[in-house]
Every structure is written in C-alpha cells, then in structure tokens.
Automatic annotation (TrEMBL):
InterPro entries: Mito/Outer_Membr_Metalloprot (IPR051156), Peptidase_M48 (IPR001915), TAT_signal (IPR006311), TPR-like_helical_dom_sf (IPR011990). Residues 1-27 form the signal peptide. SUPFAM superfamilies: TPR-like (SSF48452). This is Putative Zn-dependent protease. Its cofactor is Zn(2+). One of its GO terms (biological process) is proteolysis involved in protein catabolic process. Keywords: Hydrolase, Metal-binding, Metalloprotease, Protease, Signal, Zinc. It comes from Aureimonas pseudogalii. One of its GO terms (cellular component) is membrane.
Amino acid sequence: MSDSRRHWRGRALALALSCAIAAPAFTSPAAAQSAGNRLPVVRDAEIEALVKDYATPILKAAGLSPDRVEIVLVNDLAFNAFVAGRRIFINTGTILGSKTPNETIGVVAHEIGHLAGGHQERLRDQIARAQTIAVVASLLGVGVAAAGAASGSGAVAGLGGGLLSSGSGIAQRGLFAYQRTEETTADRSALTYLQKTGQSPKGLLQSFEGLMRRNMLAGVSANQYLSSHPAPQDRIGFLQTAAHESPFFDVMDPPERQLRHDLARAKIAAFNGGAQQVRRTFGRDLHSLPALYGDAIATHLAGSPQASLAKVDQLVKSNPNNPWFQEFRGEVLLAAGRSEDAAAAFGKAAKLDPTRSGLIQASVGQAIVAGGKPERMRDAIGQIERGLEADPGNSNAYVYLARAYGAIGEIGSAELATAEGYWEAGNFRQAKIFAARAQQKFRPGVPQWRRAQDILTTKVARK
C-alpha cells in the first residue's frame, strides 16, 4: 500500500463488538473477515476532528468526559456504528451516507446513550446469564435423553432432544429481548442529549427512515424475536412522535459545519470509490468545493500526482487557511518525490490545524525521513516523537521513526521503535521479539530499557 493511503490503513484491533445501531449491518464483511473480529481502522485527522466536534457537546450533555472517550473510524461503507469499552466506532459509510451533519450527530448521540447507560457492563452480565440458561437446559436435555435410553422409551429420548435444541434458543431470545430494550433506551437518551444541546432530532429520525427503506429494498423481514435490535419501523413510530415535539426539530446545521461534513464525505468517497463515487455523491454540483476536493484526491489515487497537484493548488489558493488542503498537498508532493516540499506543506498544515493532531505533526518528520538525508534525521526524529506524544496510537509513524534511528546508527532505538509500532498495530508477538532485541542494547533501568520491559512483561488478554 502506498504512503498516500497510510492514514487509511487498517490497524488490527481485537475487539468485542456490541451495540450496533443497525442490526442488518451489525457484522460487516470487513469486521467478520477473521475470527478475532479484526476491524479495518482508518486514521484521518480531518474526519477524526469533525466527528470529535460532533461528539463533544453530546458527551458533556450525557455527563461523560470527552477526553475519556475515543472515537474510532472503521473503513466500511455499511451504515453502522457501535460501542466497545470507552470507544465509539463509526463506519465511514455512516458519514458518507449522511447528507447532513445532523444525521451523523443523531447516530453518535444514540451510541453515547449506550455508554452513559452502562449497557455494555449489563450486557456482559446478561450474556453470562444466557450462557448459564443454555448450559442448564442442555444438561437437563442430556439427562432426559439418558433416562429415555435406559428405559427404552423413544418418546422420552425425543423429549431430551427437544430440550437440547430449545435450551440455546431460550437463552438467545432472552438476550435479544434485553438488547432490544437497551436500544430503545439509547434512542430516548439520544433525544434527551439533542434537546440539551439545542440540536434537531430530525437527523436521528432520518437515519432510521433510511435504514427501513434499505431493509425493504433488500427484502429484509427478520423475525423480531430473533433480532438483537428493534425493527426500524417500530423505532420510527416512537421517534416520529417524540422528535416532532422537540422545539429544535427544524434547526438546521450551520453552513460551515455542513461544508466540513461534505468535505469529509468527498474524501471518503474518493478513497473508497475514486472519481466515480465522487460523482455519485455530488452529481448535482460537481463544481462545489467538496466535489473538487474529492476529484483532486481521486486523481492522486489514480496515479497522476502532477494533475492532482494542480487541482489541490487551486483548492489551497481559494482556501489558504484550510489545514486539510495543506495536508493533502503534502501527500501529493510526497508521492511526487518532493519530500522537502511535502514536509513544508505538512508543517503549514500542523500550524493551521486547531486540533493539533499528532498525525499531521508526525507527517512532517515522515516526509523528512522519506527524503533520506542523514543530516535531517535528528529533526525528523523530533517531529515524529512530538507527533507520537500527542497520538501514541499512530502505528505507522513508528516505522519511519525506526528508519530515522537506523539511518544515524542507533540500532537499539530503531528496534524499540519497531517493537512499539508492532504493539500499537496489535502484533504482540513481533512486538515482544523486537523489545527483547532492543533491551539488550540499553543499560538496565534507563528509560528505553524500561519501555522495552513494559512490552515484555505486559500480558495480552486472550479470548
């Protein structure tokens, strides 16, 4: 995968998935591609900043600290979102499929309802209870079947088989009923948070109306008792009444927020479907700023850096203070082999970025490393390490950090950076191997030795 796509590279995170907003899309193809529920996590400073701005007032309204809740983007075009631990996972398809910020905000409010309600903790208890019911029913079934065999009664043996098959069904239905109740509670909480923050509940309603239409077009008619979520039409009935009672129902998103939302949609469209997807998304106005942004990205991804650079230069000229245009310009310049110019563009982006994203800060150093000048490696190391202080989860930055240390002959530090990169990427086995190699090159007790020791001694939970 090229460096131009590095922020869109998925990190392997083994996660227990729960509380999806849309039952039919609960297990996306990407999420189900491995037994460990590994997700294609995408890193992008622009979209992360946007969604964080959506979530922050809602989190405060729910009594939660924004600094303690992480927003994670999943590169999946299905309209879906879910929570796990203190993380809110949002598919990029949810943003792409939301014509207004308010629709995405409604989804975020629903997921925050799960967090604030402690639904995950209670869900674990409910799962344990369901498993107990299933085990007891199965044991009873085995006992009845054994008695039937001993007595020669086929009828009794058949009854045992029925108990065996129904035990897990009873547990499953009980668990699903519990989840449906929690989904409805999250809907009510979302309405409360939107009311407190003076935002319209129309987007939440529109999201469920869209889900219902897609279900009807796809011929979905799941048994309500075998669904972990209330049927969309049931939720819509409640939401239509409650949403229209809100005094903020007709409040529209500010134009500046709408523009940021459309720029994010343009980026998602370009990275997932190229120019064709951009045209489908903005077909009514291909000369709008978001459409031009998506076109420039698609041109770059198609392997035409010079043509893309001309397009992004026009974007920068029209919006010189947009940090994301400067960041993308850095990407294009880097692909064109102009690493010093790329570092300068990333530096401008870092200065303009109000969020002080560690991703962009690290990109400055990564561009310098790509240039390959040994005399510049110390500067590159400083830039990347400052980026990692702000965002230690940026696994790709460790690759460049290791290259920079290797270029100046500090092999122990290069191996430690490699170990930490593997750790952040979820490859714990390789992380421990490189940590052991790095630790041998440091004096016991120094900070680098202790960082390697942390990796070596931390136990990784197994499913």
